[in-house]
Design goal:
This protein is mainly beta. Helices cover 10% and strands 30% of the residues. The chain has seven helices and 41 strands. The strands form eleven sheets. Strands 1-35-36-37-38 form a five-stranded mixed β-sheet, with no helix packed on it. Strands 28, 29, 32, 33 and 34 form a five-stranded antiparallel β-sheet that branches. Strands 2-41-40-39 form a four-stranded antiparallel β-sheet, with no helix packed on it. Helix 4 (611-625) crosses helix 7. It starts with 24 loop residues before the first helix and ends with a helix. Bound molecules: calcium ion.
Length: 698
């Protein structure tokens, strides 16, 4: 074991380009926490650990030679649960001064002793359960920020809360939402940028206009706001960048739908340049033909923005997918580091956005240095280095007919963060391999507050010719200078968790089938796997207390992913949200209870068998319920509407209209459905239950 005291985190070491004078006072505070005086304590104080969010730790007490001894140190399973649904866990925990701060479902925050796992406090922002209707992808949260004795959390219902890190009591709260009638939410981790805390919102699939907001760290007062797309022209442009962006939208654009461009996940702050880099999401609706008739690049959709952290003014931008029509967000994890390219050390920003190209840009100027396909891509041939634009293929255009397009709307890489090791000089990407068939809705019937993507997408049928690589998730090591793959893991079930790399020569990742895996960072050898019984989508962290290195990761499958995909742990075990912390010579992880087979409920009694009523009920199901509840039911996800109890039938209106289960996350639809609608819905469910049960008998 090497001497941890001698190894300050790399972001602060002398070899890096960050001038100590230019590092703000706050970062100096973090430094104090990070390397505490000589007792072998090394924290994880920032979302991506280092200033560049490399997710590379200098800790090396756990290494290639001893990682086979990795076992459980402690476990926390006290995450609050509302209702029946086991929600996903996506957060990266922080460790500051030996205390772990982690967010869970419903934006709750927990402070734990990072050595013993003892719960010190918990904070419940009391998110309205009804707000789940305004989200695309579960009641998840991807992490908190720490600054000068405060913890910052963005809540699902759109508030930015600052908490006292010692007590968990709220110090201030700010509403980040410009229009609470629209479907805005927060699931991302806020970032510290100079004197501000910065946060964006989710909601592009539901018809919103994207923006990112910066608030004073001490007071919560709005410092600046940058809208990522123009609004309705008659209202005028809020800032000059929008006047330029407007020239890339047609005059007949669907301003009423909002345009999209939400900043729902990745940001990274360079204190040296005082720039906050912001990843911007997809358009709303998806096809540019519907969104901005006549086309156009539609700035700043699917763009990396470089904004002055003090003023919010734009320094440069790079649009990864001009005229995005494929849900190709540029919200994926961005890493800042120094790379030697053609004999010159460059300050770079790297991203593997959904669109399948790995980008390396000069982060001072925005100059594109290289871009190559990191996975199968057929919507574009290549990125033209002279213009920085993708060269589209005929396959990209699904305006006049369905097309099978790689990557899928899930992207070649989604939000689970990658990692970069300055030792191996490799980026470790949790890759997703899947195409989808895209077809366009001829007309868009815009229903405010509902999913309005204007396109239909579905994966190819398993076993079909197109299904090659279907639902694979792969751990891949990528050389960002040579722009080529160095190694990759065996295929894993869809989809893999975020990544941690360490100076122990190791790469850590969890998988959907509930394994926690450790790879050799150099050649990809699988050195260790621990069976946890719960799918892992979150990213691991590492820290050290009194010279003992720990690895921590959240379990709990969910988010935007359905739980009934082949091979996922949630089909076999209870999908328990928990925090697992490992160390050398720890214990075995206790497996969660096996899923119990659902009791078959007595058949429902139909009030009507009129096919018109049934068809109407089916449409109501598809429009309102299918976003969460699987058609004809599924194990261990949202409640199976094809197997309701007599009690639930009796309470149907209380639940769907009057909100009896609002708090638990089954929202009421009083604004959308009346009692006649719910009767039609019920008649459809009961009629189709009969059909389904008959089918299962045959
Ligand atoms: Ca999207």
């Amino acid at each position: 074991m090497s001497d941890i005291k001698a190894q300050p985190p790399r972001a602060f070491s002398a070899g890096r380009k960050y001038s100590p004078i230019l590092i703000s006072i706050g970062l100096a505070v973090l430094l104090l926490f990070t390397v505490r005086g000589g007792d072998g304590t090394v924290d994880w104080p920032l979302h991506g650990l280092t200033v560049g969010e490399e997710r590379f730790s200098p800790l090396d007490a756990i290494d290639r030679g001893n990682v086979h001894r990795l076992g459980l140190a402690w476990r926390f399973d006290g995450f609050a649960q509302r209702g029946q649904v086991r929600r996903g866990n996506e957060a990266t925990p922080l460790v500051v001064g030996g205390i772990m701060y982690v967010s869970g479902p419903w934006s709750m925050v927990y402070a734990l002793d990072a050595k013993s796992g003892e719960l010190l406090w918990e904070y419940d922002p009391e998110v309205s359960g009804n707000w789940i209707r305004k989200t695309c992808c579960d009641a998840v949260n991807r992490g908190v920020a720490f600054w000068n004795g405060k913890i910052y959390v963005g809540t699902l219902d759109g508030y930015m809360d600052a908490l006292d890190a010692t007590t968990g009591k709220r110090v201030w709260r700010t509403d980040t939402i410009t229009d609470r009638l629209r479907s805005y939410s927060i699931t991302g981790a806020p970032r510290i940028a100079g004197k501000n805390i910065v946060i964006g919102n989710g909601g592009a699939e539901l018809g919103v206009r994207g923006y990112v907001s910066a608030y004073d760290l001490e007071t919560g007062k709005l410092a600046w706001r940058f809208f990522t797309v123009p609004g309705a022209p008659e209202k005028g442009d809020e800032h000059p960048e929008l006047t330029m962006a407007r020239t890339t939208w047609s005059a007949e654009s669907r301003w009423d739908i909002g345009g999209g461009g939400t900043v729902w996940d990745s940001m990274v702050y360079d204190p040296d340049l005082n720039i906050i880099y912001v990843g911007v999401g997809n358009g709303s609706p998806w096809p540019v033909w519907l969104r901005s008739p006549g086309g156009g690049d539609n700035l700043f959709l699917s763009t990396i923005l470089a904004l002055d952290a003090t003023t919010g003014r734009m320094k440069w931008y790079y649009q990864t997918t001009p005229g995005d029509s494929w849900d190709y967000t540029a919200t994926q994890h961005m890493i800042l580091t120094d790379l030697e390219i053609e004999g010159r050390v460059r300050k770079v920003i790297m991203q593997a956005p959904k669109n399948g190209f790995f980008y390396v840009l000069d982060r001072e100027t925005g100059e594109l240095l290289s871009a190559e396909k990191y996975t199968r891509v057929n919507w574009a041939e290549k990125i033209d280095m002279a213009t920085g634009r993708p060269v589209l293929t005929e396959q990209a255009n699904y305006k006049d007919g369905a097309k099978l397009i790689w990557p899928s709307t899930a992207g070649g890489h989604n939000w689970p963060p990658m990692a970069y090791s300055p030792d191996t000089k490799l980026v470790y990407i949790p890759l997703l391999e899947l195409p989808m068939t895209f077809s366009m809705h001829k007309n868009i019937s815009y229903r405010p507050g509902n999913v309005n993507v204007g396109a239909r997408v579905f994966p190819p049928r398993p076993g079909s010719k197109e299904a090659q690589g279907l639902f694979n998730s792969v751990m891949m090591a990528w050389d960002p200078v040579a722009q080529k793959r160095v190694w990759q893991s065996d295929p894993l079930p869809w989809w893999g968790g975020g990544v941690l790399a360490t100076a122990g020569g190791l790469v850590f990742q969890g998988s959907a089938d509930g394994r926690f895996m450790v790879f050799d960072a150099g050649d990809g050898t699988l050195l260790k796997e621990i069976e946890t019984g719960v799918g892992i989508i979150a990213a691991p962290i590492t820290y050290s207390i009194e010279g003992m290195q720990y690895i921590a990761v959240l379990t709990g499958f969910g988010g935007g992913i359905k739980r009934f995909l082949p091979g996922v742990a949630a089909l076999k075990y209870d999908n328990v949200p928990q925090l697992l912390v490992f160390k050398l010579d720890g214990k075995a992880v206790p497996l969660p209870p096996l899923l119990e087979k659902a009791e078959i409920q007595p058949p429902g009694i139909a009030r009507s068998t009129d096919p018109v009523v049934i068809a109407r009920g089916q449409k109501i199901f598809m429009d309102n319920c299918a976003r969460c509840h699987a058609f004809r039911g599924a194990a261990n996800g949202y409640p199976n509407l094809w197997n309701l109890s007599e009690n639930t039938y009796a309470m149907f209106n209380d639940i769907v209209i009057d909100g009896a289960l609002d708090y638990g996350g089954m929202p009421n639809f009083a604004d959308e459905l009346n009692r006649e609608d719910t009767q039609d819905l019920l008649n459809f469910l009961i009629s189709d239950q009969k059909t389904l049960r008959q089918k299962l008998k045959e």
